Amino acid sequence: MDKLDYKQYYNSNDSVRLFLYALIIPYVAMFLLYGVYMIIGTSINMNTTEFMEQLPVIMVNSIFMQVCFIAIFFAFNYKRKINFVSATKLNKVPNAWAIAVAVCLGFAFMWFSSPLMTLFEKALTAIGFNIDSTLGFELTNAGTIIFAIIGLGIIPAFIEEFIFRGAILQGLRKHGDWFAIIASALLFMLMHANIQQTIYQFAFGVLAGWLVVKTGSIWTSIAIHGLNNIVVIIVQAVNEINGTATQTVELNTEFWVQFAIYTVVLVALVCLGVYLIKHIYKNDKTALASQTQVQASDKSKISKTNSKLPDMAEDGSRAMSFKAGFVDFMQDRTLKREGVIGIFVSLVFLIINSTAMFM
Known about the structure:
Layout: H1 12-43, H2 48-52, H3 55-79, H4 84-87, H5 96-112, H6 114-126, H7 142-172, H8 177-192, H9 198-215, H10 219-242, H11 253-280, H12 296-305, H13 322-330, H14 333-356
């Protein structure tokens, strides 16, 4: 297949369809994998539960979803004839200062939001949820730590960003940048089906999406995603080695003082980071990567459906509010149907996983 025939962009249909594939196929594959576990366990006279408690099996399970994402993403791009390097903006190198600011912003967001996340987890625990923040295996030796950093830190930083801030966000930008940012963050949150991380994942998705749109490069979101994952793994490893992994946080005066200080610092640093990124790209006309091959049919369709909507920019985006972008998205019956199906299925998975946390 000639690479010159490949598209250099994603459209809205690509975004919605890829989300559906990435949502459903991994769960089907996991169900089949459990069947394999049952067969293997039976063959060695071990029940399925005991077999799945073996360290190698636990480690395979921990990265299985990521392996599915990789297979789905590259198969989808091959089938749809899309050059993912150009379409995800992987070929756009951001300003070095922007990367530095983004990394600092990502670290500040992760570190200073910790009291808020603790408070949210406490609220969930109070209503009956069994919160478990462990990886399923101990990070007490170099082998498991390296495995976690690569398999649960670095790989997800790339493949999840390719899917959410690459294909999904870029494909939805013709409905407006803010719609694309918020929608991709919402889908990112729902995909994980983890109620204890919903607030953090959505807020992180909004930050990562904004950085990609503003800098024109997916490397900024990959950088802060990788930083987030690796720091979490290292902190957990240190806590497990020191025997403080299960330390209980009390909602006393000290906590509330820390909560207030961290929240003020977080808001201040986010505002500063956003200001610096905007300043860096203030006069940079190349910040938003160009989608030179935006489909002419998409443009004509938009102008016919609503002549009041802003024209498309070179990158395929339009200056629209989130509400206007949502209305524009819902005007396409196919997008509306598949989008509703995706949200419904992801909510079902979230409810199922949340219900299991009561047991």
